[in-house]
Amino acid sequence: MVSRNIYLQLVFRVILMTLTIIISTYFFFNDHYVAGGIGAIIMIFQTGALIEYVNQTNRKIAYFFDAIKNEDFTLRFPEKLSVKSLEELNHSLNMLNSMIQDIHLKKQAQEQYYQEILRQADIGIFTINPKGHILYANPTVQELLNYRPLNHVKQLNQVDKDLYALFADLQPFGNTIFKLGNERGKKELSLKCTPIVIEGQQLLLVVVHDIHKELDEKETDSWVKLIRVLTHEIMNTITPITSISESILNYFKKGTNPDIPTHFSEQQIKNTTKGLEVIKEQGSDLMSFVQSYRNFLSIPEPDRELVPANALLEKITLLLNEQKEHSGITIKTQIEPIGLELYIDQKQLTQVLLNLGKNAKQSLEGIDDGYIHFTAGINAVNKKYIQVTDNGAGIPENLIDEIFVPFFTTKNTGTGIGLSLSKQIMRLHGGSINVSSGEKTVFTLTFD
To answer: Where is the Histidine kinase domain (predicted)?
Structure first.
């Protein structure tokens, strides 16, 4: 509507000027010089009025954009004018100004919200421009580096020379672990530098995370779990030994004084014999438990070689099928690509996969159409993997975080060393082992 009214105004003024020129010319050619002169003067005034009209509109629009550029939203144009087109133009500019002001306020509120999130974040974040200037650094990164304010990457040289060397060439780098020592102690920092583009400017986004505290907490938690399991196992073994030893000792002791029995009843002889047998069995179990602990701590470094995944899984399938129990279980293998090879210690990985297969068989007791699937392949991040899947009873949700703790077991037999030993073997291979359990239980071995 505004542009239409301005357009009509311009057309009207141009037509009026054209008519004035035609009439003035007519008077001049018919020797009416006075009338022609008056027409020329009128045309000059019309031209000036047209220029003023255009300039007035242009000045308002120029003032408007200058105010927007300077984030000055106080500019207001009068909306009660004699000229309808200018009144509508002023009204439209005021509306547009209010809309831009609302957007600006919302953007500021959003920016403050994100800045507050960054300030409260447990990870350190800062950005570097191509000249090495640090445009933003949240309080966490300044606390981690014990240096504030951070304005330029060269300041990292005062924190640690090796740390500065990581950023000296202002090039991005992947996840790096850096050990930083200062008067506040030692910190183990995870650093990652990623390129980003904001408003056409190339920047480096740096994320810093203190993993030392997190590792300490996990290590302490692991020790607590291990000690709890060890205490439980040892107490279960020693308690009957103590009880039986006390019962047998009473045969040879009256109160606090030793007593030489002159006669043993048949029942006492049986009780003594049975008690000594139990003590022997419990002692053997305790020795076996300690030996398992020794085996867990003395796993040799893997003797790695390229092993075809097909040959490895065929061997595991053969060993599991030879076991008489649970013979109704279907065992399948799937490998993609067919010629997949794994750089592993074959004996150690056979031990891991055989242990997972035996656990899967035990979980399938009493289940019809039970199956165990071994799958080998390459995942989305180009890492080789083996998955062991079964449709057994599954792992209770409250126990899934405990199954890799050494000596933790829910079975009546076994030492509970199998899964923790498997995890240790995968760690020595530079890989990992993970589990998920629901309708199916899936153990995934991932190799780096």
So the answer is: 229-448
